[in-house]
């Protein structure tokens, strides 16, 4: 097995096998072969999009200690970062999404913690939808849902969702892997595009675990896949495991691109960075309000990027940015 053969195999339209992905993932991130893989992923992403990257923008409707206790999340009750619940008012939420629209975000994401009342989420969403241009792509980032609820999400005007089976779901997270998968099926059954990701990657994850997750995301034929590293929340138990470098994350983003069928146009990374953009990421996120990777209540005052800063990062690594409603989600509709 060698990297040139695997790149050729991918160029011929064949999906890489688990062993082949493991081979690439086991390479040191700074090996010449890893740079070859990043260059090829970049080439594929640019070919599929006409060199037009996208920036999506997310707001959180609430901030609350969450009993699901995912070890990597700043909302987890056991991490003790946030103690009280805060919810955006309708006016605040509408102001945020209107600003995103004005900034030119290609899609607007509405996030809640898993415990946010579903009825309230629908109510807020209806109002948000009414205040946006009908062509603005609206995406939900919410907890696991039944098929009936997934249909309601679609009815209130969402085009898709972000939903991921996280690495070591069920042991590092307090959620059931089977429920995560079932929700993804429910969203797709309801006609919602599903964007997903290999996340949150830490130094302890083996090449085999990453390969399995890349193949799982590929099996969904998602709106996009990609890779995101874990951001250590200071003082938490999981922070002791450390974090991977941006270069390793870029390598995983690139290998994820090679592991996806060409029907998947989007390839995301988080947090936004030029190494990711160089390695084939064509989707970054801007964020406001609460953020599960931040200890600031308003991530715009902390780790959160803006639409403008995400675009600047893309330009730094040779990308143009697409103007208009997201093609990644629309392609799946
Ligand atoms: S990731 Fe979601 S479900 Fe897990 S603790 Fe954070 S808010 Fe709760």
Secondary structure layout:
Elements: H1 3-11, H2 18-25, H3 32-49, E1 52-60, E2 62-63, E3 86-87, H4 90-103, E4 107-111, H5 118-130, E5 138-141, H6 147-155, E6 160-162, H7 177-189, E7 193-195, E8 198-201, H8 207-219, E9 224-229, H9 246-259, E10 266-270, H10 274-278, E11 283-288, H11 307-316, E12 320-321, H12 327-330
Parallel strand pairs: 1-4, 1-11, 1-12, 4-5, 5-6, 6-7, 8-9, 9-10
Antiparallel strand pairs: 2-3
Helix pairs in contact: 2-8, 3-9, 6-7, 8-9
Bound molecules: iron/sulfur cluster.
The site of iron/sulfur cluster has 12 residues, from loops.
Describe the structure concisely.
The protein has twelve helices and twelve strands.
Entry keywords:
single chain, 7-stranded parallel sheet, binds iron/sulfur cluster, 333 residues, 12 strands, 3-stranded parallel sheet, alpha/beta
Descriptive account of the structure:
The strands form three sheets. Strands 1, 4, 5, 6, 7, 11 and 12 form a seven-stranded parallel β-sheet that branches. The protein is 39% helix and 15% strand. It has 333 residues and is an alpha/beta fold. It has helices at residues 3-11, 18-25, 32-49, 90-103, 118-130, 147-155, 177-189, 207-219, 246-259, 274-278, 307-316, 327-330, and strands at residues 52-60, 62-63, 86-87, 107-111, 138-141, 160-162, 193-195, 198-201, 224-229, 266-270, 283-288, 320-321. The mean pLDDT is 95. It starts with a helix and ends with a helix. The radius of gyration is 19 Å and the shape is globular. Helix 5 links the parallel strand 4 and strand 5. The structure holds iron/sulfur cluster (SF4).
């Amino acid at each position: 097995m060698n990297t040139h053969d695997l790149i050729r195999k991918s160029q011929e339209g064949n999906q890489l096998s688990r062993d082949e992905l493991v081979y690439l993932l086991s390479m040191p991130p700074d090996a010449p072969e890893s740079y070859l893989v990043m260059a090829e992923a970049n080439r594929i992403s640019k070919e599929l999009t006409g060199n037009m990257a996208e920036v999506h923008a997310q707001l959180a409707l609430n901030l609350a200690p969450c009993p699901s206790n995912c070890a990597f999340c700043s909302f987890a009750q056991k991490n003790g970062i946030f103690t009280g619940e805060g919810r955006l008012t309708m006016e605040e939420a509408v102001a945020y999404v209107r600003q995103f629209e004005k900034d030119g975000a290609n899609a607007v994401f509405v996030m809640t913690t898993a415990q946010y009342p579903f009825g309230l989420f629908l109510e807020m969403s209806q109002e948000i939808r009414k205040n946006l241009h009908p062509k603005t792509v609206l995406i939900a980032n919410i907890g696991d849902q039944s098929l009936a609820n997934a249909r309601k999400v679609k009815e209130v005007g969402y085009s898709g969702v972000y939903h991921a089976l996280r690495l070591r779901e069920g042991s590092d997270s307090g959620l059931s892997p089977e429920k995560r998968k079932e929700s993804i099926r429910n969203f797709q059954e309801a006609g919602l595009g599903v964007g997903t990701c290999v996340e949150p990657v830490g130094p302890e994850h083996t090449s085999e675990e990453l390969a399995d997750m890349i193949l799982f995301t590929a099996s969904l034929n998602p709106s996009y896949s990609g890779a995101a590293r874990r951001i250590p929340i200071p003082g938490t138990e999981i922070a002791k495991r450390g974090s991977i470098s941006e270069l390793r994350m870029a390598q995983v983003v690139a290998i994820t691109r090679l592991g996806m069928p060409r029907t998947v146009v989007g390839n995301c990374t988080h947090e936004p960075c030029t190494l990711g953009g160089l390695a084939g990421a064509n989707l970054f996120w801007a964020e406001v309000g609460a953020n599960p990777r931040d200890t600031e209540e308003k991530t715009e005052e902390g780790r959160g990027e803006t639409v403008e800063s995400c675009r600047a990062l893309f330009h730094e690594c040779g990308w143009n940015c697409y103007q208009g409603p997201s093609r990644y989600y629309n392609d799946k509709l």
